[in-house]
Write a structure and sequence with these properties.
This is S-adenosyl-L-methionine-dependent methyltransferase superfamily protein. The protein has about 400 residues and is α/β, with parallel strands linked by helices. It is about 30% helix and about 20% strand. It has two domains: about 250 residues, no CATH class; about 100 residues, no CATH class. The protein binds S-adenosylmethionine.
Length: about 400
Amino acid sequence: MGKREKQKQKHQRSQRGKGSYNFHQDEDGDIDDTAPFSSLPEEVDKDLQEEEEDEDCVDDNTDEQEQDPSLDMPSKFLLYQQSVQSPKGDISYMQKFFLMYVGGRMPLHLQEDFCGTALLSTEWLRGDSRKTAVGLDLDLEALDWCMENNIPKVGADGFSRISLFHGNVLQPLQSKLVKMDPRQLIESISLTQKGDDVQAGVLESNIQEGSAAEDDKIFKRDFPLPGRDIICAFNYSCCCLHKRAELVLYFRHAREALSSKGGIFVMDLYGGSSSENKLRLQRRFPNFTYVWEQDEFDIIQRKTRISLHFHLKKQHRKLRHAFSYSWRLWTLPEIRDCLEEAGFRSVHFWIRAMPDSTEIARTEGFGAGKDIKYEEATSFEQQDSWNAYIVGVA
Ligand SMILES: C[S@@+](CC[C@H](N)C(=O)[O-])C[C@H]1O[C@@H](n2cnc3c(N)ncnc32)[C@H](O)[C@@H]1O
């Protein structure tokens, strides 16, 4: 069996076993965390670090473990969503920015670039049936996972209001619409909406109408979409672009996709004196520990490698390097210059200082700094650690 096939089977098994886990989730499937940016763990815990070092010999990929159903692992995407993302906080800030800098209408059409499992897009669709979302990412496995696990939770019309594209943000029009095998779609609907015959019926008719499922190659350039009110790139995704020319090109594409009636581009960035070093932060959740690891920081290229690990308590298992990114840590003025060069009319910074990491370990522990709000700033004194939203107004 090929490695990919093996992984697929393992992934399917983990989906089946998902219901048996008791994760810290609200009924919509989100972490109940109103503060945006849970992306950087806020706890530095030396005991856990020692525990991690001692247990490093545990291999999460052995055949023996694959054969034992009691050791079934949750999907890495589920763990990521629960520990890294807080879409509700991001959405409320984006709506506030839109009303402040554009105004005159409610934002309805979102594009989430670097969307991964498009959790934010699916959250966006809730509560207003006029809302639509577009997601774009290079990772087909993450997009497929979204189709199977996130969109069915939105409700009957979820699939008709979201379009996911597989491709590169630098060539967005060449990205391809993600299709879903109709049989798999029906299966996921019946699993998530068991007993709701009306909703399942509506979705079945959507599948037949949508030729997307029939056609392998529907490109974004051939897919008519209303101008976007908001385009976002979260969890430091712009750091995946390493060259200035790429950043400007990406911002140009974003500006072109925004509505001619006005729209905003929103991204995030982290920084501070502690961010230009090797870093290891951990945060405990009821059933697992999330570890953020940043390698040495190259001050000439401003590059580093980020790895996300998950330690599952019940299974005594580790998912090391579940996600790994090579990042160039851009500075705020670099981002502003590139946005302006790409044609944005104005650029705004909303910043919050994060609690000093060593201080957190000594005193407050997990959750420290959650209540600190973002403030608009034109000047900001360097801190141990900060997070920022950057808003480009088209
Ligand atoms: C740090 S993750 C962020 C995922 C999600 N936006 C979030 O908020 O958690 C970065 C994502 O960007 C995607 N990515 C990296 N480079 C890309 C590119 N050039 N075009 C499209 N997606 C890209 C990766 O596949 C990954 O899903």
